[in-house]
Amino acid sequence: MKFRAERDVLLEALATAARAAATRGGALPALSGVRIEVRGDVLHLAGSDLDLTVQVEASVSGIDDGVCVIPARLGTDIVRALEPGAVTFALEGGEAQIAAGRSQFTVRVLPAEEFLRLPEPAGDAVTLDSAALAAALSQVVRAASKDDARPILAGVLMTAEPAGLRLVATDSYRLAMRDLPGTTLLAEGQHVLVPARALGELQRVLQHAQQVTLRLGHDQASFEVSSVRVTTRLIEGEFPNYRQLVPSGYPNRLTVGKEPLLDAVRRVKLLAREATPIRMALRPDGLELTAVTHDVGQAREDLDAKYEGSEMVVAFNPEFLIDGVEATPGDEVVLETLDALKPATLRATEGTDFLYLLMPVRVS
User: Residue 338: what are its φ and ψ, rounded to 5°?
Assistant: First the structure.
């Protein structure tokens, strides 16, 4: 096996595939690496941890066809460290020879025969607009749980609605919901639960593409974007009934500038240590933000805002609040509340495609 490639081309492909490589003990040793195969002038790379597989193709100057598996992180670090220009990659015995300019590296390869059989796409192909999907994912994926012990909440629900496709994610403390009107992806009443990690990787490869092709199989989903294919196992189980969490109406409504609110929350949260919430005093004459951490200090800031409803003080986790405000489109955001203990929602002043539900924090 031998080929030549431009450093930047090889690095981008290798780093993309390496993100799916297994990082935890217990998996097959080969899954901690990236499978590299050259056929003619096309390089095929793949990384997988069994649940998520990322496959990439790149154009190279092929010399001898062949296949090997190199350690994912080490291989990526080596190629990244090389000077720009041509890189020669060759397999000799049980070692990979990587050379560029005056630099030469020898790396022991992993057993290629132990690498899993790469998944084949299943199901009918549906083409989506990359920009619209990327925007929706950036709004929703952030609300999914990072705790693998609760796999249901570590996924994003894709469900068919009369108007199109709906994406929903929740970690039980906040919930994000985004509609993609006119997007026909699932049959009426159908829904699937896609791991948020896979959709996070998909976000990375959507940035410079115009279209993405999705195929849904019985237990997996694959997304094809240009020369990259992301394949993931679907999550089994019943997603929480999110509809019952969203009140039909709110008596209290705050309208405030998005960027001024973000800036103020970031400043005030400097004094919100050790999971201290930020308190929001909602008043007809504006908004007051406060954070108090005992033995450290306190911060307070006033903001111009329009408020309709009963005066109250409601407290939120500052990181979750920032996530919701950042995800809300437009120059202004609307915060709607029932009382200081029930879920509040963040929306845009115009449009109803996005909603962010946030649980308040109980404070004395």
Answer: -95, -55
Is 247-358 in the same CATH topology as 125-244?
yes
Q: What is the mean pLDDT of the chain?
A: 92
Element (H, E) at 356: strand 354-358
Half-sphere exposure of 102 (CA within 13 A, CB side): 0
- Domain 2-114 sits in which CATH superfamily? DNA Polymerase III, subunit A, domain 2 (3.10.150.10)
Q: Which two tokens stand for residue 117?
A: 């059989």
Nearest 5°: phi and psi at 347? -140, 170
Average pLDDT over residues 237-261: 92
Beta strand 332-337 pairing with 344-348: antiparallel
Q: Domain 247-358: what homologous superfamily?
A: DNA Polymerase III, subunit A, domain 2 (3.10.150.10)
At 187, give phi and psi (nearest 5°). Answer: -70, 160
Q: What angle do CA 229, 234, 238 make, to 5 degrees?
A: 155
- Token pair 């195929």 in the structure block, residue: 215
Tokens (6 digits) for 148: 């693998």
Using pLDDT thresholds of 50, 70 and 90, give the confidence band for residue 319: very high
- Decide: residue 236, CB within 10 A, 0-12 exposed, 13-18 middle, 19+ buried: exposed
* Residues counted in the chain: 364
Domain boundaries 125-244, corresponding CATH code: 3.10.150.10
DSSP symbols for 133-195: HHHHHHHHGGGS---TTSGGGGEEEEEEETTEEEEEEE-SSEEEEEEEET---S-TT-EEEEE
Cβ atoms 140, 193 nearer than 8 A: no
**What pLDDT band is residue 355 in, cutting at 50, 70 and 90?**
very high
Alpha-carbon distance values, 101 to 3, 98, 156, 284, 300 (Å)? 15, 10, 46, 68, 57
Has residue 26 got a pLDDT over 70? no
Cα–Cα distances in Å, from 17 out to 54, 101, 199, 214? 5, 25, 15, 19
**Which pTM does this prediction carry?**
0.89
Say if residues 97 and 106 touch (Cβ distance below 8 Å).
yes
Which pLDDT belongs to residue 25?
Answer: 57
The pair of three-digit structure tokens given for residue 241, joined into one six-digit string = 């009934």
Domain boundaries, the chain: 2-114, 125-244, 247-358
